[in-house]
Amino acid sequence: MAAPKKGRGPAGGQSRPGRALAFILIAMVALTGGMFWSGHTTPRLGIDLAGGTSITLKAKAEPGEESAVNETNMNTAVGIIERRVNGLGVSEAEVQTQGRENIIVNIPRGTNEKQAREQVGTTAQLYFRPVLTVADGAPPAAPSATPSGSASGTPSAKPSSSGASVGEKSATPTATATTQGRAVSEALKAPSPTPTASSSSSAKPKATGTPQATPSADAATAALQQKFATLNCLDPKQRAAAGQGVKPAQPTVACGEDSPGVWAKYLLGPAEVEGRDVDNAKAAIDERTGQWLVDMAFTSEGSKKFQSITSKLSQQTEPQNQFAIVLDGEVVSAPRVQTTLSASAQISGSFNQQSAQDLGNVLSYGALPLAFETQSVDTVTAALGGDQLEAGLIAGAIGLALVIIYLVAYYRGLSLIAILSLGVSALLTYVIMSLLGPAIGFALNLPAVCGAIVAIGITADSFIVYFERIRDELREGRSLRPAVERAWPRARRTILVSDFVSFLAAAVLFVVTVGKVQGFAFTLGLTTLLDVVVVFLFTKPIMTMLAKTKFFGNGHPWSGLDPKRLGAKPPLRRTRRATAPAAADPKEV
Q1: Element (H, E) at 362
Q2: What pTM, to 2 d.p., does this model score?
């Protein structure tokens, strides 16, 4: 009973190549259908092939902090900018330093190019500052108007509406809240030495009832009050320069847009919470109003700070019960605080979906350690890359033609199997690259094209290994069908080891390199995996099926498997039959 089972084993194995062929055919149809269904029928191209935008950013240090522009901070900025751009779905964006104080950002065309241009240089310095007073964004009509006057009675009470209220309705604020003018004066004369100070600290004066002041503090107070009084938030230059050079522990002035074209100006106390205290931020929709906002979750330390400041502000009267959320020197929201909060907060205002997502993106990936100014924004054409691509494709076509000529001349009929396998591999590579563009942001650049060309040799090498193993079995005197099956285990091991080494090299290259070289490594690794799939699911099954045909099975001279041309030995079975009578003699047993 054992002998028939052994005979059926190979036969059964040879009768199943249709399953593997059906599997790879279904996979090819499904992937191709997915490509057309997605609408992305061509691979996305990198900046060297499609063109795009090149942005040059120059780091600028605050006065007295020139040493901040160093290699460590520049590398940190590169990493943050790269994460921001990738967070927008832009892949193959190149971010690298140039010299000591410049960063170059290359963004391919056809991506979220406009958003990326807006975010790459955004510092994203976020602070929560208590509001001391607020006024209309335009400068006062009369020079005598000061922040300690009737600022709270101006029409600029709208800032609280831009941020809405935070938390549930609390008890009525205490009657001991200081007036706006006194709060401004005391906050300016006695600023906290640490960022944990707040405007409510002014409610604890010394026994004399007046804060200790020095001539320099008085001068700073007068200068900041004058700056607030004369600030014109309708002027973009004044808005941008309002809080420049101010440290977190110092009070400052800032502008905020309540609604499109309507600005308010704020006099703010020292920062209580910083952007580094934000653990995560994402865009969301307010279920009550249907408007877009940004949800923020704080770190454990940030929760303590936020709880402290909201506890103090909830006891103040408007506008000193507000805290301003200041991003890069501009107030994006100034909500009222009516109860103590700790774990999370929301930034609301005149957001749409895109602006809310952009703000959540920059807050999630962190603030840049340096401020940057845009030196240049240049449009990169694809002319040079197109010429190089054309030259590369010509070189690839020549290499492929030489491989085919060699296969036809040396392997004859077997070259048909190799050419079909190369075609299947090329189709799978093209379709998968087209799908990876919208899926993970993969973009085809020149090094990636080089990786695909190198893969031609790797794939052809797998076929050659298998063909030579079959020929070795034929030289031993076996017929084609057993030779195909016996050659496969030996060839399979060699192919797997070879492809494993290639894939390992591609993986290491991808990890240790950056930029365009990663495109080469990714393509090389992808095509190496596809080589294994094609050889196992297409080349081997096709070879098994063709071994049953007369052209290949009988060793036609043009099949590439002619026993005479290969110098085959006499069949092994004839040798065994000739020695059979001698082995049957009992005396010799």
Answers
A1: helix 353-364
A2: 0.55
